[in-house]
Amino acid sequence: MTKMKTKFKVGDRCKCLHPYAYRREEPFIIVGICNKFLSSNGIIRAAYVIQYDDGKYDAIPIENEGGYEMRPLREGV
Q: Measured between alpha carbons, how far is 69 from 3 in angstroms, rounded to an integer?
């Protein structure tokens, strides 16, 4: 198993800052990190596996792998 250096960790609550993100800036929790995620355009890249408050899952490519900029949220924000 390869260890990746990532800016965010499993359990971090964040939001995406990209205006065209699938769910805009809706907050989510990082529930996993996958180093072999197959994107919709057929490229294998590292991605954060995320879960939104309604229980739905998604994946966001890690920033240096072509992903979106994200920001951590603090409690009560």
A: 21
pTM: 0.78
Tell me the domain boundaries of the chain.
Answer: 13-72
The 10 Å Cβ neighbour count of residue 16 is 23
DSSP character for 65?
G
Task: Say which residues have a Cβ less than 8 Å from residue 51's Cβ, sequence separation at least 6.
Answer: 28, 29, 31, 57
Q: Which two tokens stand for residue 42?
A: 């057929």
Q: What is the mean pLDDT of the chain?
A: 82
Per-residue DSSP letter, 31: E
